[in-house]
């Protein structure tokens, strides 16, 4: 496990542009090495801005989308047409504007029972990634309660070790979610957190403190063989 890298940008816009450059370069490297780029998207307003930037020709023309395979690190258990859907957000911000084969987009199933949908999604992950279950890049955000993906404080998924994807009941939101587990996230070659805004400061301060205690789900993200990059803005690291 490599030490996490922290990069601090002036504001959310600068952070998103930097993340877009990083995404282009990560895609190019993976495609050069393995002829494909496997990436997990996340929800939240920060990834949304990244996706909008990636949709502009400057960025999208530099990505060989035919070789990009997209999953979601977590999804709300709502129809794909719902404004709550992370897939819908990604579609409107990015996927509708690029030429990517439909077969490269692995939308989280959200019809029927959450447990069956989670198993089905796990099977898709295994089918595409094979035994290694290693994404080239996993994008994550962080909520102001310290959750990441749908690994919320106090939920049973936090102690799941066998599964790669699981359904989770989130009491605080009275809703089902489908989420990657730590096991899957921590196999990733690279994890990139996108965290902007002053409301993230109280948690960042605690988790980046020397000898920090294990307090929040986000602290369980530690890729075994991969690299974590925190893309932060000044507001998130100063609280101002
Ligand atoms: O579904 C959710 O609970 C949110 O989408 C969440 O997972 C999100 O990633 C963080 O709250 C960060 O969101 P921001 O990028 O908007 O700060």
UniProtKB/TrEMBL annotation:
UniProt superkingdom: Bacteria
Reactions catalysed, as given in the entry: 6-phospho-D-glucono-1,5-lactone + H2O = 6-phospho-D-gluconate + H(+)
Domain Glucosamine/galactosamine-6-phosphate isomerase: 11-230
EC number(s) recorded for this UniProt protein: 3.1.1.31
The keyword Hydrolase appears for this protein: yes
Keyword list, A-Z: Hydrolase
Biological processes annotated in GO: carbohydrate metabolic process; pentose-phosphate shunt
Pfam families xref list: Glucosamine_iso (PF01182)
Pathway membership, UniProt: Carbohydrate degradation; pentose phosphate pathway; D-ribulose 5-phosphate from D-glucose 6-phosphate (oxidative stage): step 2/3
Molecular-function GO terms, alphabetical: 6-phosphogluconolactonase activity
InterPro entries cross-referenced by the UniProt entry: 6-phosphogluconolactonase_DevB, 6PGL, Glc/Gal-6P_isomerase, NagB/RpiA_transferase-like
Family in the record: Belongs to the glucosamine/galactosamine-6-phosphate isomerase family. 6-phosphogluconolactonase subfamily.
Role, per record: Hydrolysis of 6-phosphogluconolactone to 6-phosphogluconate.
Protein name: 6-phosphogluconolactonase
